[in-house]
What does this fold into?
Amino acid sequence: MYPIPYLDLPPLGAAAGTVRLPGSKSISNRLLLLAGLSAGVTTLVDLLDSDDTRVMLDALRGLGCRIEQQGRHTRITGVAGKPAVLEADFFLGNAGTAMRPLTAALAVISTQNGGRYTLSGVPRMHERPIGDLVDALRALGVAVECLGNEGYPPLRLAGGSLLLDAPVRVRGDVSSQFLTALLLALPLAAGPRAPTLGTDGSSLPPEGASPPWGGPAAGRDVVIEVIGELISKPYIEITLNLLARFGIAVRREGWQRFTIPAGSAYVTPGEVHVEADASSASYFIALGALAGVDAPVRIEGVGAASIQGDIRFVEAAQAMGARVMAEPNALEVRRGAWPLKAIELDCNHIPDAAMTLAVMALYADGPSTLTNIASWRVKETDRIAAMATELRKLGAQVEEGADHIRVWPLAQFKPAAIHTYDDHRMAMCLSLAAFHTLKGAAPVPVRILDPKCVAKTYPDYFETLFGVVAADAAQIPVITIDGPTASGKGTLAAGVAQALGYHTLDSGSLYRVTALAARRAQVAADDEAGLAAVARGLHLQFEGTNVILDGVDVTERLRDEAVGAMASQISVWPQVRAALFDLQCGFRQLPGLVADGRDMGTVIFPQAGLKVFLTATPAARAERRHKQLISKGIPASLDSLRADLEARDARDKNRSTAPLKPAQDALLLDNSLLGIEASVQQVIAWWNARLPFDGSAGC
Ligand SMILES: Nc1ncnc2c1ncn2[C@@H]1O[C@H](COP(=O)(O)OP(=O)(O)O)[C@@H](O)[C@H]1O
Ligand SMILES: Nc1ccn([C@H]2C[C@H](O)[C@@H](COP(=O)(O)OP(=O)(O)O)O2)c(=O)n1
It folds into this structure.
């Protein structure tokens, strides 16, 4: 995940490779609730790990479920429909898949155990309507109070008595999640009730409940009727499918009437595998259609056997020209028609994945129209408005209606800072606008603001994307920071890289590790050919900022002054420098690089977008190095450090190959009196001034 204010995507080219997607959010949260309501232990394999599932897990813990997580397995010990917790406040973030079903389940439970529960979320959650569910629950006899605006969370559930003689009626034309919520919760009311015993052993109704409080001993049929035309039917199919796996065989008459049979009780199936998220697959299906030119983009974890409605996004992508090969549990996607073919599509059956089509439409051969998408307006944000606004920033012509969007193709993209509205799908969809595969168009980058919003369903989305796309190396941004020893290059490079989500190259560590390996192999500091052979033969791995030599972490060893001194000596040899050239260039990877050393701007990355030459007075640098060593418990003398540092400066500056000197176009930064954070901010400001994004766009 990139927990940074913005992530810049350079122009992207071909895509190929395999992605393994995280588990489905819809399936994960439904399974969690069902497992929590069942008796006994349910093991969920490959459960999605995201904000929304964490919210649901926390709620289940709050109800008294035991949760154990180990590797790919999550074990949930359910409360058998009877949580002992009678009062609790649940904070559910912006997770609609937690808010709706938990509201229904806790409503029924509160009528049965006299419990008092409140459910709240982030401000956006309090703007997302839940009135249709509240109306249905009130008609059912539950005391539901809207604590803010009527028809919206936060809610208080305060018992009541269930009136089950007439069918429960719920609207189905705004969101199918209300029906899902009732289907998941009402088996609690259909099953046989064990009587509650008074202290004297007599059968008592729970406090606050009026008869009939428990229903007949054998249970009763619970009938749900849908008012209006039910939307997003595939999500109801998922709900029914998962209920069946927990032993609840709902009888369905068309899409209007659903009967939960008398005596129903949640029975854990033991272990359940969570299939990958079909909505998340849509970004990689689109990727294949846009950029799967030579080899396919292979998507594992979801395929033709999926129970998720969004798998039908495949048909939409095919209609736009994608070539898709579907296996039961995997998909392979390549570009077919190019440009893509414009479509006009009723997207009621794929509301979430359809957002991806709106961005694909930029690459089509005419205007594309997506209809029947009114539900977009009540999602994480008003997605029709948000999509129209952001596509227009890219330069596209967009028509927006109450329940449709029309997008015209774009010949030349504008660099844009894309707002994501705390909506994971906005971030993931709009990342596809970074592809520049249209003939004659100048490639431009895309800035995604608040990229961490993808954590809602796909925390590693961008890392996965970068794993399967290629970019022209010249398009991958590089910032170089050169300067003398102890000027703070490494510290500054790390700070800048962290702020931008970029990789780092500590080139000095490569000279240091060569020096260390040479010492071990007893190759002398003046044996140029021998040293170059050592450099070429290094077996290195990099784990974050740690350097692994021959399988051993040598990061700390590399900082020894003796190793540093030898590094300075051996770095004068042209053959050694040449031997390390390709290794250094290889660090230029998506989404960008901050490289520090002596010749980053002059020799290794002469085309870098920003070159900084960092200096500080010898006194300040000696002081810093002294502090650094003392803090690590390494004894050091300030005078000898300064003498050593000046000798090293002289050697680094005066060597004939790649001497230490500012590149002609480098910006000088003397940080003798400038703190670390201020130095980082200065470099970021210089960097942003060189980028084509509108600086006022929220970062
Ligand atoms: N701007 C600064 N002000 C004060 N101390 C700094 C500053 N930048 C870095 N330092 C400190 O100086 C020491 C040397 O920094 P380092 O990044 O290792 O230098 P280099 O990579 O140039 O050898 C570290 O202890 C670091 O925390
Ligand atoms: N790009 C580079 C990086 C380092 N070197 C050499 C010169 C330095 O004295 C050594 C060690 O570099 P390093 O950056 O780790 O050293 P300091 O932390 O600045 O003391 O390697 C180089 O010649 N070219």
